[in-house]
Amino acid sequence: MILENCSPERFESFWRHYFDLDRDYGEIKRQLSSDPVLKEAVKYGWGMRILNQDPWETLISFIISANNNITRIKGIIERLSQKFGREICWEGKSYYTFPAPESLACASEEDLKACGCGYRGAYIKKTAAMVAEGLISPYKIRELSYEEGHKTLLSCMGVGDKVADCILLFSMEKPEAFPVDVWVKRVMEYFYIGSPVPIRQIKTIAAEKFGKYAGLAQQYLFYYAREKKIGK
DNA sequence: CACCAGGTAGATC
DNA sequence: GATCTACATGGT
After folding, report:
1. How far apart, in whole angstroms, are the C-alpha atoms of residue A75 and residue A58?
2. In whole angstroms, what is the distance from residue A187 CA to residue A230 CA?
3. Tens of pLDDT, residues A139-194
4. A68: Cβ under 7 Å from strand C?
């Protein structure tokens, strides 16, 4: 991997953790590969890593992801950043930071609608207000256990079981979190169960089979399922 | 014009 | 608790 425009100090203080470089993926892949299905999925997504992303940004981003498609999710986040973020100029081009909690809490319904948020606009505004007022803190939730963090995240409007698991996995260093979206549900039923079952049952099976690295297994399975369009 | 997309909130039993 | 439905928006 090559990073441009990055000092050794900046690499150590930020990017090393962001790219999860201290985790031994070789060892985890070996462990998961004792399962024949995971062995194939791991082969498919051999270079994958779980990024350690910003908790606040991840919280809002995955509220937007619910019942939505990836193209639109990206567009909405881009437009929110342009409208409510801070401009950064670099090499003659403009970029925008992800908006601060206060900015989204103060956003008007019309502005959020203009970004294409749809009915999620109200969720974003409410959750942003909770953070801006200090009722909840994404950075403090990160310090909690998986169970406590999950429970706390559910108090945010727009955050359900699956979105909470995504936030915990992608920004709060909880590799045991196993988000079950439509693809993971399909691939688990297809390979391990054989018939449609409730999501909670899939989470139970995943915890038993994959243990404390269930989240990484989820990512290999997700990628594999999508690429192969399994169950569709 | 239906159906779908990295589900959730609110009502109901 | 478990189950059902409406939900903005843009693409196919």
Report:
1. 15
2. 6
3. 999 999 999 999 999 999 999 999 999 999 999 999 999 999 999 999 999 999 99
4. yes
Q: Round and report the angstrom distance from CA (A11) to C1' (B3).
A: 46
- The rounded distance, in Å, linking the Cα atoms of A230 and A222 is 10
pLDDT digits (tens, 9 = 90+) for A89-112: 999 999 999 999 999 999 999 999
Mean pLDDT of chain A: 96
3-state secondary structure A101-144: HHHHHHCCHHHHHHCCCCCHHHHHHHHHHHHHCCCCCHHHHCCC
Q: Does residue A67 reach within 7 angstroms of strand C, measured from its CB?
A: yes
What are the percentages of helix, strand and coil residues in chain A, rounded to 5?
60, 5, 35
Residues of A serving a catalytic function are 162
Q: Is the CB of A229 under 7 A from strand B?
A: no
In three-state secondary structure terms, A49 is coil
φ/ψ of A181, rounded to 5, equals: -100, -175
Nucleic chain C: which protein residues 9-28 of A have CB below 7 A from it? none
At A118-149, the pLDDT tens digits run: 999 999 999 999 999 999 999 999 999 999 99
Residue A97 has φ and ψ, to the nearest 5°, of -75, 160
Nucleotide B6: nearest residue by CA–C1'?
A181
| Residue A171 · residue A54 · CB < 8 Å | yes
Query: Is A160 (CB) below 7 Å from strand C?
Result: no
